[in-house]
Amino acid sequence: MGNLSLNLQSLLGGYGLTWASFLLQIGIIVFLLWYGYSHLIKNSPAEKTLKGVLCFLVVVWLVGEIFSLFHLNILSSLLKNLLLLVLLSFVVIFQPELRRLMARFGNNLSWDAWSHKKRRKEGKDLVNLLMQTISYWRSHKTGALIVFENQEPLDAALTGGISLDAVLSAELLINIFFVNTPLHDGAVLIRGKRIVSAGAILPLSTTPDLSWRYGTRHRAAIGLSENTDALCLVVSEETGDVSLINNGQVNTFSNMEDLDKKLNTFLKPLIYQEHQKSIQERWQDLKKRLTSFDWSNTMK
Predict the structure, then answer these.
(1) For position 71, what pLDDT does the model report?
(2) pLDDT-based confidence at 145, cuts 50/70/90?
(3) Which of 263, 235, 229 has its CA nearest to residue 248?
(4) More confident residue, 216 or 52
């Protein structure tokens, strides 16, 4: 133990660090790792992947150390290179989570007060439209399944369906899920403020301990949410209950105010994202303004 303490002190001295500085930096690193895990990975489809990757890294590291003890240097070097390769592949494995993190940074930026106010109004209008539609479905015992796309594209996760690319409206949603219409049994995919497709088929959940109360719509929504970051809304045809399903977790709402708050929390950042422009698009807008501006009046 004394040798370990001396080695650590000599290492800190070599880097010009004090114990206080060392502990502060370790604390910052631990906090960033905890924050990233709790806000991006925890209760998400990537959590199981992260645990599997970490277990794999620990096993490979231990085996590499054992090889070093027996002077199997080639195998030890091979495993060390494998560790480095796996660490570099984190960028690819957790690409959706990194995109979500960047989107959250972008959501906290506001280019001007007018656009921020407009986005808030559009998000509120969208939620009000959905709440009116849900109230109609509940009163008429109409079943419905809506999928709200988040950061991960869902084109590969959904099969079948009819492409619509239509402006989202209560009338269109009500007609799609009207009993005995061709599309009422599938799911509606919503991206931002538009209906992308209707009648889509979702992968059913294979979780063995699901409650018997969950019908096909709930099992399909759970199955999709277990593998993507989408939010699924299910209205039960038998009971009129409304459930929001995300990360494999089912939340049934008896209070419509709580449902309203949850939809606002999820959808408003997506409305913001629709308004985000790239630097090139903003540069093009600026050039259009400059070329259309009447400079002759300013010279008078």
Answers:
(1) 81
(2) very high
(3) 229
(4) 216
Beta bridge partners of 118: none
Confidence (pLDDT) at 113: 44
Are 226 and 205 contacting, i.e. CB atoms less than 8 angstroms apart? yes
Q: Which domains does the chain have, with CATH numbers?
A: 22-104 (no CATH), 116-274 (3.40.1700.10)
Q: According to the model, what pLDDT value does residue 6 have?
A: 57
The answer to whether 279 and 287 are in contact (CB under 8 A) is no
Full 3-state SS string of the chain: CHHHHHHHHHHHHHCCCCHHHHHHHHHHHHHHHHHHHHHHHCCCCHHHHHHHHHHHHHHHHHHHHHHHHCCCHHHHHHHHHHHHHHHHCHHHHCHHHHHHHHHHHHHCCCCCHHHHHHHHHHHHHHHHHHHHHHHHHHHCCCCEEEEECCCCCCCCCCEEEEEEEEECCHHHHHHHCCCCCCCCCCEEEEECCEEEEEEEECCCCCCCCCCCCCCHHHHHHHHHHHHCCCEEEEECCCCCCEEEEECCEEEEECCHHHHHHHHHHHHHHHHHHHHCCCHHHHHHHHHHHHHHCCHHHHHC
pLDDT at residue 259 in the model:
86
User: What average pLDDT does the structure give for the chain?
Assistant: 76
Q: Mean pLDDT highest for which of 110-124, 249-263, 271-285?
A: 249-263
150: tokens are 């988040």
Q: In this predicted model, what pLDDT tens digit does every residue of 76-104 receive, in sequence order?
A: 888 888 888 877 777 777 776 666 666 65
